[in-house]
Specification:
By secondary structure, the protein is of the alpha/beta class. The chain has 18 helices and six strands. Strand 2, helix 2 and strand 3 form a beta-alpha-beta unit.
Protein backbone atom coordinates (compact mmCIF):
# COMPACT_ATOMS: atom_id res chain seq x y z
CA UNK A 1 0.00 0.00 0.00
CA UNK A 2 2.80 2.45 0.90
CA UNK A 3 6.31 2.37 -0.50
CA UNK A 4 7.80 4.64 2.19
CA UNK A 5 6.96 5.45 5.79
CA UNK A 6 8.16 7.97 8.36
CA UNK A 7 8.15 6.88 12.00
CA UNK A 8 8.23 9.67 14.60
CA UNK A 9 8.67 9.58 18.37
CA UNK A 10 6.37 12.25 19.77
CA UNK A 11 7.21 14.29 22.85
CA UNK A 12 6.06 17.72 23.98
CA UNK A 13 7.26 19.82 21.05
CA UNK A 14 6.07 19.61 17.48
CA UNK A 15 8.70 21.68 15.64
CA UNK A 16 11.31 18.92 15.07
CA UNK A 17 8.51 16.60 13.93
CA UNK A 18 7.17 19.18 11.47
CA UNK A 19 10.74 19.59 10.18
CA UNK A 20 10.98 15.81 9.65
CA UNK A 21 7.63 15.75 7.85
CA UNK A 22 8.74 18.60 5.58
CA UNK A 23 11.88 16.63 4.68
CA UNK A 24 9.94 13.42 4.08
CA UNK A 25 9.44 13.46 0.33
CA UNK A 26 6.92 10.84 -0.67
CA UNK A 27 3.66 11.06 -2.55
CA UNK A 28 0.94 9.14 -0.68
CA UNK A 29 3.41 8.17 2.05
CA UNK A 30 2.62 6.91 5.55
CA UNK A 31 3.55 8.67 8.80
CA UNK A 32 3.52 6.71 12.06
CA UNK A 33 3.34 8.72 15.28
CA UNK A 34 4.39 6.95 18.48
CA UNK A 35 3.43 8.91 21.57
CA UNK A 36 3.60 8.11 25.27
CA UNK A 37 0.67 8.20 27.62
CA UNK A 38 0.97 11.57 29.38
CA UNK A 39 2.04 12.19 32.97
CA UNK A 40 -0.30 14.02 35.40
CA UNK A 41 -0.08 17.74 34.75
CA UNK A 42 2.12 17.34 31.67
CA UNK A 43 1.76 20.24 29.25
CA UNK A 44 1.45 20.01 26.39
CA UNK A 45 0.12 16.47 26.42
CA UNK A 46 1.99 14.18 23.91
CA UNK A 47 -1.37 13.11 22.43
CA UNK A 48 -2.23 16.74 21.68
CA UNK A 49 1.16 17.20 19.99
CA UNK A 50 0.56 14.02 17.98
CA UNK A 51 -2.87 15.32 16.98
CA UNK A 52 -1.38 18.59 15.69
CA UNK A 53 1.30 16.74 13.71
CA UNK A 54 -1.36 14.37 12.34
CA UNK A 55 -3.38 17.30 10.98
CA UNK A 56 -0.24 18.80 9.44
CA UNK A 57 0.57 15.49 7.73
CA UNK A 58 -2.95 15.17 6.34
CA UNK A 59 -2.72 18.70 4.95
CA UNK A 60 0.28 17.48 2.96
CA UNK A 61 -1.54 14.43 1.58
CA UNK A 62 0.10 11.91 3.93
CA UNK A 63 -1.67 9.06 5.70
CA UNK A 64 -1.19 8.78 9.47
CA UNK A 65 -1.25 5.94 12.02
CA UNK A 66 -1.01 6.54 15.80
CA UNK A 67 0.48 4.14 18.35
CA UNK A 68 0.40 4.75 22.11
CA UNK A 69 3.03 3.52 24.56
CA UNK A 70 1.27 2.86 27.86
CA UNK A 71 4.37 3.66 29.91
CA UNK A 72 6.90 5.84 28.03
CA UNK A 73 9.45 5.33 30.83
CA UNK A 74 9.42 1.53 30.47
CA UNK A 75 11.91 0.39 27.82
CA UNK A 76 10.27 -3.04 27.49
CA UNK A 77 6.89 -1.42 26.79
CA UNK A 78 8.49 0.84 24.18
CA UNK A 79 10.27 -2.03 22.42
CA UNK A 80 7.05 -4.07 22.40
CA UNK A 81 5.14 -1.18 20.81
CA UNK A 82 7.88 -0.52 18.25
CA UNK A 83 7.90 -4.22 17.35
CA UNK A 84 4.19 -3.95 16.51
CA UNK A 85 4.91 -0.85 14.43
CA UNK A 86 7.53 -2.55 12.26
CA UNK A 87 5.43 -5.69 11.89
CA UNK A 88 2.46 -3.62 10.74
CA UNK A 89 4.60 -1.59 8.36
CA UNK A 90 5.64 -4.77 6.57
CA UNK A 91 2.61 -7.02 6.91
CA UNK A 92 -0.27 -4.51 6.85
CA UNK A 93 1.11 -1.67 4.77
CA UNK A 94 3.72 -3.44 2.60
CA UNK A 95 6.29 -0.70 3.26
CA UNK A 96 9.77 -1.19 1.78
CA UNK A 97 11.61 1.86 3.11
CA UNK A 98 11.26 3.35 6.60
CA UNK A 99 12.66 6.64 7.87
CA UNK A 100 12.95 6.43 11.66
CA UNK A 101 13.16 9.78 13.44
CA UNK A 102 14.06 9.41 17.13
CA UNK A 103 14.20 13.11 18.05
CA UNK A 104 11.07 13.37 20.23
CA UNK A 105 9.69 11.47 23.19
CA UNK A 106 11.33 10.23 26.38
CA UNK A 107 14.84 8.77 26.39
CA UNK A 108 13.45 5.22 26.71
CA UNK A 109 11.19 5.91 23.72
CA UNK A 110 14.09 7.13 21.57
CA UNK A 111 16.29 4.24 22.74
CA UNK A 112 13.59 1.65 22.12
CA UNK A 113 12.79 2.99 18.67
CA UNK A 114 16.46 2.97 17.59
CA UNK A 115 16.94 -0.51 19.03
CA UNK A 116 13.88 -1.81 17.17
CA UNK A 117 15.04 -0.19 13.93
CA UNK A 118 18.55 -1.65 14.15
CA UNK A 119 17.30 -5.14 15.04
CA UNK A 120 14.42 -5.13 12.57
CA UNK A 121 14.29 -8.68 11.11
CA UNK A 122 12.45 -7.67 7.93
CA UNK A 123 14.07 -6.99 4.59
CA UNK A 124 13.30 -3.28 4.49
CA UNK A 125 15.54 -0.28 4.09
CA UNK A 126 15.77 1.62 7.38
CA UNK A 127 17.12 5.17 7.60
CA UNK A 128 17.77 6.59 11.06
CA UNK A 129 17.53 10.35 11.44
CA UNK A 130 17.75 12.94 14.18
CA UNK A 131 16.77 16.60 14.11
CA UNK A 132 19.43 18.70 15.82
CA UNK A 133 21.12 22.08 15.49
CA UNK A 134 23.61 24.47 17.07
CA UNK A 135 21.21 27.22 18.20
CA UNK A 136 18.84 26.57 21.10
CA UNK A 137 16.25 28.60 23.01
CA UNK A 138 16.16 29.20 26.78
CA UNK A 139 14.47 25.82 27.31
CA UNK A 140 17.30 23.98 25.50
CA UNK A 141 15.24 23.26 22.40
CA UNK A 142 16.75 23.70 18.96
CA UNK A 143 15.53 26.87 17.25
CA UNK A 144 13.49 25.82 14.21
CA UNK A 145 15.50 27.97 11.78
CA UNK A 146 18.69 26.21 12.91
CA UNK A 147 17.33 22.67 12.69
CA UNK A 148 19.15 20.15 10.52
CA UNK A 149 18.72 16.45 10.05
CA UNK A 150 21.47 13.85 10.49
CA UNK A 151 20.92 10.45 8.84
CA UNK A 152 22.37 6.96 9.06
CA UNK A 153 21.46 3.82 7.10
CA UNK A 154 22.23 0.54 8.88
CA UNK A 155 20.14 -2.29 10.34
CA UNK A 156 20.87 -5.57 12.03
CA UNK A 157 19.65 -7.39 8.92
CA UNK A 158 21.94 -5.43 6.59
CA UNK A 159 24.92 -6.10 8.88
CA UNK A 160 24.02 -9.79 9.09
CA UNK A 161 23.43 -9.99 5.33
CA UNK A 162 26.77 -8.36 4.53
CA UNK A 163 28.64 -10.69 6.90
CA UNK A 164 26.95 -13.78 5.44
CA UNK A 165 27.75 -12.71 1.88
CA UNK A 166 31.32 -11.88 2.87
CA UNK A 167 31.82 -15.43 4.15
CA UNK A 168 30.03 -16.88 1.12
CA UNK A 169 32.23 -14.93 -1.32
CA UNK A 170 35.24 -16.55 0.34
CA UNK A 171 33.40 -19.90 0.00
CA UNK A 172 33.41 -20.33 3.78
CA UNK A 173 29.94 -21.83 3.59
CA UNK A 174 30.05 -23.41 7.07
CA UNK A 175 30.48 -20.00 8.71
CA UNK A 176 27.90 -18.39 6.41
CA UNK A 177 25.41 -21.16 7.22
CA UNK A 178 25.91 -20.78 10.97
CA UNK A 179 25.18 -17.03 10.85
CA UNK A 180 22.27 -17.41 8.43
CA UNK A 181 20.37 -19.42 11.06
CA UNK A 182 19.57 -16.06 12.70
CA UNK A 183 17.66 -14.86 9.62
CA UNK A 184 13.86 -15.10 9.27
CA UNK A 185 12.62 -17.95 7.11
CA UNK A 186 10.41 -15.84 4.84
CA UNK A 187 10.86 -13.02 2.33
CA UNK A 188 14.26 -11.98 1.00
CA UNK A 189 16.06 -12.92 4.26
CA UNK A 190 14.51 -16.38 3.89
CA UNK A 191 15.84 -16.57 0.32
CA UNK A 192 19.35 -15.74 1.54
CA UNK A 193 19.11 -18.26 4.35
CA UNK A 194 17.94 -21.10 2.10
CA UNK A 195 20.42 -20.18 -0.67
CA UNK A 196 23.36 -20.45 1.71
CA UNK A 197 22.04 -23.79 2.90
CA UNK A 198 21.73 -25.04 -0.68
CA UNK A 199 25.26 -23.89 -1.53
CA UNK A 200 26.61 -25.54 1.63
CA UNK A 201 25.11 -28.92 0.71
CA UNK A 202 26.16 -28.58 -2.92
CA UNK A 203 29.68 -27.81 -1.71
CA UNK A 204 29.59 -31.06 0.27
CA UNK A 205 28.46 -33.05 -2.81
CA UNK A 206 24.99 -33.66 -1.38
CA UNK A 207 23.40 -32.84 -4.70
CA UNK A 208 20.02 -34.38 -4.00
CA UNK A 209 19.30 -32.28 -0.91
CA UNK A 210 20.75 -29.18 -2.56
CA UNK A 211 18.43 -29.77 -5.54
CA UNK A 212 15.37 -29.84 -3.28
CA UNK A 213 16.40 -26.55 -1.69
CA UNK A 214 17.15 -24.94 -5.05
CA UNK A 215 13.75 -25.99 -6.40
CA UNK A 216 12.10 -23.66 -3.88
CA UNK A 217 14.27 -20.68 -4.83
CA UNK A 218 13.89 -20.37 -8.59
CA UNK A 219 11.18 -17.71 -8.83
CA UNK A 220 12.54 -15.29 -6.25
CA UNK A 221 16.10 -15.79 -7.54
CA UNK A 222 15.04 -14.56 -10.98
CA UNK A 223 13.61 -11.40 -9.40
CA UNK A 224 16.60 -10.70 -7.12
CA UNK A 225 19.10 -10.92 -9.98
CA UNK A 226 18.14 -7.29 -10.67
CA UNK A 227 19.24 -6.13 -7.19
CA UNK A 228 22.95 -5.44 -6.74
CA UNK A 229 23.20 -6.86 -3.19
CA UNK A 230 21.77 -10.21 -4.28
CA UNK A 231 22.60 -10.41 -7.98
CA UNK A 232 25.60 -12.73 -7.53
CA UNK A 233 23.98 -15.29 -5.26
CA UNK A 234 20.67 -15.11 -7.17
CA UNK A 235 22.44 -15.74 -10.48
CA UNK A 236 24.40 -18.65 -8.99
CA UNK A 237 21.22 -20.17 -7.55
CA UNK A 238 19.47 -19.87 -10.93
CA UNK A 239 22.33 -21.54 -12.81
CA UNK A 240 22.72 -24.38 -10.30
CA UNK A 241 18.96 -24.92 -10.24
CA UNK A 242 18.99 -25.43 -14.02
CA UNK A 243 21.45 -28.33 -13.79
CA UNK A 244 20.67 -29.69 -10.31
CA UNK A 245 18.18 -32.38 -11.44
CA UNK A 246 20.65 -33.68 -14.00
CA UNK A 247 23.62 -33.69 -11.63
CA UNK A 248 21.64 -35.20 -8.74
CA UNK A 249 20.24 -37.95 -10.98
CA UNK A 250 23.62 -38.94 -12.40
CA UNK A 251 25.25 -38.86 -8.98
CA UNK A 252 22.52 -41.18 -7.68
CA UNK A 253 22.95 -43.58 -10.62
CA UNK A 254 26.72 -43.63 -10.19
CA UNK A 255 26.29 -44.57 -6.52
CA UNK A 256 24.12 -47.49 -7.65
CA UNK A 257 26.73 -48.51 -10.20
CA UNK A 258 29.45 -48.19 -7.57
CA UNK A 259 27.52 -50.68 -5.40
CA UNK A 260 26.55 -52.98 -8.28
CA UNK A 261 29.14 -52.62 -11.09
CA UNK A 262 27.52 -55.39 -13.15
CA UNK A 263 24.27 -53.48 -13.58
CA UNK A 264 24.39 -52.98 -17.35
CA UNK A 265 21.11 -51.08 -17.47
CA UNK A 266 22.43 -48.60 -14.95
CA UNK A 267 25.62 -48.21 -17.00
CA UNK A 268 23.54 -47.44 -20.08
CA UNK A 269 21.54 -44.81 -18.19
CA UNK A 270 24.75 -43.15 -17.01
CA UNK A 271 26.52 -43.13 -20.37
CA UNK A 272 23.42 -41.69 -22.07
CA UNK A 273 24.47 -38.26 -20.75
CA UNK A 274 28.14 -37.55 -21.56
CA UNK A 275 27.83 -33.85 -20.75
CA UNK A 276 26.34 -34.71 -17.39
CA UNK A 277 29.32 -36.89 -16.51
CA UNK A 278 31.65 -34.08 -17.52
CA UNK A 279 29.66 -31.70 -15.30
CA UNK A 280 30.25 -33.94 -12.28
CA UNK A 281 34.02 -33.95 -12.90
CA UNK A 282 34.09 -30.20 -13.48
CA UNK A 283 32.23 -29.66 -10.24
CA UNK A 284 34.99 -31.46 -8.37
CA UNK A 285 37.42 -28.99 -9.95
CA UNK A 286 35.25 -26.06 -8.86
CA UNK A 287 35.21 -27.51 -5.36
CA UNK A 288 39.01 -27.67 -5.46
CA UNK A 289 39.12 -24.03 -6.54
CA UNK A 290 36.87 -22.99 -3.64
CA UNK A 291 39.16 -24.76 -1.16
CA UNK A 292 42.09 -22.90 -2.73
CA UNK A 293 40.32 -19.58 -2.18
CA UNK A 294 39.71 -20.58 1.44
CA UNK A 295 43.44 -21.21 1.86
CA UNK A 296 42.93 -24.96 2.36
CA UNK A 297 45.67 -25.96 -0.06
CA UNK A 298 46.00 -29.66 0.82
CA UNK A 299 42.24 -30.12 0.42
CA UNK A 300 42.43 -28.31 -2.91
CA UNK A 301 45.12 -30.66 -4.26
CA UNK A 302 43.20 -33.76 -3.11
CA UNK A 303 40.17 -32.54 -5.05
CA UNK A 304 42.25 -31.71 -8.12
CA UNK A 305 43.49 -35.30 -8.13
CA UNK A 306 39.93 -36.59 -7.70
CA UNK A 307 38.74 -34.37 -10.56
CA UNK A 308 41.23 -35.96 -12.96
CA UNK A 309 40.44 -39.45 -11.65
CA UNK A 310 36.70 -38.81 -11.96
CA UNK A 311 37.14 -37.60 -15.52
CA UNK A 312 39.22 -40.65 -16.48
CA UNK A 313 36.60 -42.98 -14.96
CA UNK A 314 33.84 -41.24 -16.90
CA UNK A 315 35.77 -41.61 -20.15
CA UNK A 316 36.33 -45.32 -19.46
CA UNK A 317 32.58 -45.78 -19.16
CA UNK A 318 31.75 -43.55 -22.14
CA UNK A 319 34.33 -44.80 -24.64
CA UNK A 320 35.02 -48.38 -23.55
CA UNK A 321 32.02 -49.42 -21.45
CA UNK A 322 34.35 -50.24 -18.55
CA UNK A 323 33.01 -49.74 -15.02
CA UNK A 324 35.98 -48.67 -12.88
CA UNK A 325 34.72 -50.48 -9.76
CA UNK A 326 35.19 -54.25 -10.00
CA UNK A 327 36.14 -53.61 -13.58
CA UNK A 328 34.48 -55.63 -16.33
CA UNK A 329 37.73 -56.04 -18.30
CA UNK A 330 36.19 -58.75 -20.46
CA UNK A 331 34.51 -56.08 -22.62
CA UNK A 332 37.97 -55.40 -24.12
CA UNK A 333 38.15 -58.89 -25.63
CA UNK A 334 41.51 -59.58 -27.28
CA UNK A 335 42.91 -56.22 -26.08
CA UNK A 336 43.24 -57.51 -22.52
CA UNK A 337 46.85 -58.63 -23.04
CA UNK A 338 47.80 -55.18 -24.41
CA UNK A 339 46.24 -53.58 -21.33
CA UNK A 340 48.21 -55.91 -19.03
CA UNK A 341 51.38 -54.90 -20.83
CA UNK A 342 50.62 -51.19 -20.52
CA UNK A 343 49.86 -51.53 -16.81
CA UNK A 344 52.86 -53.85 -16.29
CA UNK A 345 50.78 -56.49 -14.48
CA UNK A 346 50.06 -60.17 -14.83
CA UNK A 347 46.55 -59.83 -13.43
CA UNK A 348 44.35 -56.82 -14.14
CA UNK A 349 43.30 -54.83 -11.02
CA UNK A 350 39.76 -55.09 -9.71
CA UNK A 351 39.40 -51.33 -9.36
CA UNK A 352 40.74 -48.69 -11.73
CA UNK A 353 42.25 -45.57 -10.23
CA UNK A 354 43.56 -42.40 -11.80
CA UNK A 355 46.89 -43.67 -13.14
CA UNK A 356 45.56 -46.98 -14.47
CA UNK A 357 42.53 -45.36 -16.02
CA UNK A 358 44.60 -42.80 -17.93
CA UNK A 359 47.05 -45.46 -19.11
CA UNK A 360 44.20 -47.56 -20.52
CA UNK A 361 42.63 -44.51 -22.17
CA UNK A 362 45.92 -43.74 -23.93
CA UNK A 363 45.64 -47.04 -25.79
CA UNK A 364 42.36 -45.94 -27.35
CA UNK A 365 42.42 -42.13 -27.38
CA UNK A 366 46.09 -41.54 -28.22
CA UNK A 367 48.98 -40.22 -26.14
CA UNK A 368 48.27 -37.75 -23.34
CA UNK A 369 50.52 -34.72 -23.72
CA UNK A 370 50.06 -33.58 -20.12
CA UNK A 371 51.30 -36.85 -18.59
CA UNK A 372 54.36 -35.39 -16.86
CA UNK A 373 52.22 -32.66 -15.30
CA UNK A 374 49.63 -35.20 -14.15
CA UNK A 375 52.41 -37.17 -12.45
CA UNK A 376 53.37 -34.00 -10.58
CA UNK A 377 49.84 -33.78 -9.11
CA UNK A 378 49.83 -37.49 -8.27
CA UNK A 379 53.13 -37.21 -6.45
CA UNK A 380 52.05 -34.10 -4.55
CA UNK A 381 48.79 -35.74 -3.52
CA UNK A 382 50.36 -39.09 -2.58
CA UNK A 383 53.03 -37.55 -0.35
CA UNK A 384 50.87 -34.89 1.28
CA UNK A 385 49.97 -34.99 4.98
CA UNK A 386 46.48 -36.34 4.32
CA UNK A 387 47.67 -39.27 2.19
CA UNK A 388 50.98 -41.11 2.56
CA UNK A 389 53.64 -38.55 3.44
CA UNK A 390 54.59 -35.22 4.92
CA UNK A 391 55.12 -32.88 1.97
CA UNK A 392 53.80 -29.41 2.72
CA UNK A 393 51.34 -28.02 0.17
CA UNK A 394 51.62 -24.24 -0.10
CA UNK A 395 49.66 -21.74 -2.16
CA UNK A 396 52.03 -21.94 -5.14
CA UNK A 397 51.83 -25.74 -5.37
CA UNK A 398 48.05 -25.72 -5.04
CA UNK A 399 47.69 -23.02 -7.71
CA UNK A 400 49.99 -24.94 -10.04
CA UNK A 401 47.86 -28.06 -9.54
CA UNK A 402 44.71 -26.16 -10.51
CA UNK A 403 46.40 -24.83 -13.66
CA UNK A 404 47.54 -28.33 -14.61
CA UNK A 405 44.04 -29.70 -14.06
CA UNK A 406 42.61 -27.08 -16.45
CA UNK A 407 45.02 -28.27 -19.14
CA UNK A 408 44.21 -31.93 -18.50
CA UNK A 409 40.46 -31.34 -18.61
CA UNK A 410 40.74 -29.50 -21.93
CA UNK A 411 42.94 -32.19 -23.46
CA UNK A 412 40.83 -35.16 -22.35
CA UNK A 413 37.47 -33.61 -23.25
CA UNK A 414 38.79 -32.68 -26.72
CA UNK A 415 39.67 -36.35 -27.22
CA UNK A 416 36.00 -37.29 -26.89
CA UNK A 417 34.74 -34.51 -29.16
CA UNK A 418 33.84 -31.75 -26.70
CA UNK A 419 35.06 -28.50 -28.24
CA UNK A 420 36.34 -25.52 -26.28
CA UNK A 421 33.11 -23.50 -26.46
CA UNK A 422 30.95 -26.38 -25.28
CA UNK A 423 33.33 -27.02 -22.38
CA UNK A 424 33.20 -23.35 -21.35
CA UNK A 425 29.39 -23.41 -21.41
CA UNK A 426 29.30 -26.49 -19.19
CA UNK A 427 31.89 -25.03 -16.82
CA UNK A 428 30.07 -21.71 -16.45
CA UNK A 429 26.95 -23.43 -15.16
CA UNK A 430 28.84 -24.66 -12.12
CA UNK A 431 30.67 -21.53 -10.99
CA UNK A 432 29.75 -19.93 -7.68
CA UNK A 433 29.95 -16.22 -8.53
CA UNK A 434 28.77 -14.53 -5.37
Amino acid sequence: MFRRALVLCVGTTKDPLIKAVDEFVCEHGLVVLIYGRGFPGQEPHPFDVAAEVREYCKSRGLSVELYEVSDPEDLDEVISCCGRVFRDLVERFNVREVVVNYTGGTKPMATGLVYSALTCPYNISVILEYVGGGVRDKFGRVVREAMKISRSVKTQYSVLRDRILEYARRYAYSQALAISEFLPESGVPGFLRKSIKALYYWDNFNYDYARRLLDDLGGIADVLREYSEYSGIADTVSRLKSIAPRVAYLNSELKKLNSNPRDERCLRRVTRDPDGLILLSLDVFENAYRRFVEGRYVDSVLRVYRCIESLSQSLLMLKLGIVPWKANWEVLGSDIERVKSVLCVHELPENIGCYGGLKVLELYLGSIKTWDKILTIMQLRNYSHLEHGYIEVDREKAENSLNIAREVIKELTEKIGIDKQRLIELWEKLKHKL
